[in-house]
Design brief:
about 230 residues, about 25% helix, single chain
Length: about 230
């Protein structure tokens, strides 16, 4: 596990097979004011990762932030039995086998802000960790470059065909399937009102600075109607 913001935010990457190709998916563990931690978009847990997570603090919750980011929630629930799991809209419909509670903006008032964005194919709840001034997202933006690790040849070809290479972009499902542009614009305006410069994303490289500009660029087709 790597410190993204020491004492506040930690990340761990895991290989994911998708559509015949391989890329990395990223879990975030964030601190709460009481010293506990929340697991966001979990990856598979072995004994070592569980112990490393427990050293950061008592696990208060597991978060499934998107209806496309739920594959390893059961792993986290087995690693931390009895810990509640809060899920974005649509996850419960896909995963009736999991014990889930709704992820609402009343979970951690004063510490975490959130906004929902997406469509029926891909919908996520984006979080803002106030203490570290960091946006925590999954597919809101994907960020792939020549130096991005964990990509096999097939995935690199796919990303380039999708016109996402060296350009921050939303996941294709968000970019092409979001029909309610007014709702997307309201969600993006809400996010851009937050005081942040960092952003953690699930795929590709996260942003240690310049995240707000990257978000504006990625979603320019909604914010100003520019096609890209």
């Amino acid at each position: 596990m790597r410190a993204f913001v020491p004492g506040q935010l930690y990340v761990h990457e895991h290989p994911l097979r998708l559509g015949g190709g391989t890329l990395l998916t990223r879990m975030t563990v964030f601190k709460l004011a009481d010293g506990g931690v929340v697991i966001h978009s979990p990856v598979p847990f072995d004994d070592a990762l569980r112990a490393e997570t427990e050293r950061l603090g008592v696990v208060r919750a597991i978060v499934a932030p998107s209806n496309c980011h739920h594959l390893f929630v059961a792993d986290a629930q087995r690693a931390f039995p009895g810990v509640p799991t809060y899920a974005a809209p649509g996850v419960a419909d896909k995963r009736p086998d999991l014990a889930l509670e709704p992820l609402t903006d009343r979970r951690w008032p004063g510490e975490i802000d959130q906004v929902e964005i997406g469509n029926r194919i891909m919908r996520e709840v984006v979080l803002f960790h106030r203490a570290s001034r960091t946006v925590i997202a999954v597919d809101l933006v994907e960020h792939f470059r020549d130096e991005t690790p964990g990509l096999d040849r097939l995935m690199r070809v796919y990303i380039k065909v999708m016109l996402m290479w060296n350009k921050p972009r939303p996941a294709p499902e968000l970019r092409w399937m979001t029909r309610d542009r007014a709702a997307a614009r309201r969600a993006l305006d809400h996010i851009l009102e937050w005081d942040f410069d960092r952003m953690i994303v699930a795929h590709g490289e996260s942003f240690e600075h310049g995240a707000k500009d990257a978000l504006r660029d990625a979603w320019r087709f909604i914010l100003d109607g520019t096609r890209h």
